[in-house]
Amino acid sequence: MSRERRLVEAFVQLADSLVEDYDPVDVVQELLDRAVDLLPVDTAAVLLAGQDGELKVLASTSEATRWLELLQIQAQDGPCVQSYRSSELVIVEDLEQVRDEWPAFAKQALLEGFRSVYALPLRLRTDRVGALNLFSAGEEQMTEDDLLVGQALADIASIAILQARLLTDHKTVNGQLQLALQSRIVVEQAKGMLAAQGDLDPEAAFDALRGYARRTRARLPELARGVVDRTIDMDKILDR
Length: 240
Prior knowledge:
By secondary structure, the chain is α+β, with helices and mostly antiparallel strands. 57% of the residues lie in helices and 15% in strands. The protein has 10 helices and 5 strands. The chain has a 5-stranded antiparallel beta sheet, with helices on both faces. Helix 2 runs antiparallel to helix 6 (144-162), helix 7 (170-198) crosses helix 8 (202-216) and helix 7 (170-198) crosses helix 9 (220-228). The chain is globular and about 50 Å long. It starts with a helix and ends with a helix.
């Protein structure tokens, strides 16, 4: 299937996800999976700004990417943090060149095997939401067309998070953002429990959780809550 066809299908599916009772975490996680499929990148993550302006990891496609995002949050600097603060695209095509600017981030990213990173702002009008961050381990660089696709995906994430129909009600929007962050915490707890139950690394546990959610058409946060509350058999998720 051509990329154009996959791109159309991705936008149609994401648009269909934006129904009245959608969950931002589900939509953003699906968006990240699509980004990795459609673009010449290997992993992706989204940083979300909470009500207090503090950045947190909302979703990621790998544990390595999540760790790199946490490093930037801790240092309060890095391409992804910079993209959020400036609301502008930040391109790092050679991580070796930013060792002095972002030493901790660049060192860890290179150790993980990444060569480049592209950070795209999540924004809607004057509202800054966070940043979509794309990591590549290959030599192929993103083209202008790739960046346009990436920004389009980032814009969908912004709409999903802010729930555009409620933009005038900031109290409601802030509450929904907080709920999204809380959902991510529950997902992390479930991932840890599955890792312990199945003697897996966190990334494999997350893959099992996402895979089960897709097979059963369950919402990821609700499934994670079931794991944490022990109302769902973890062995079923682990396919035992």
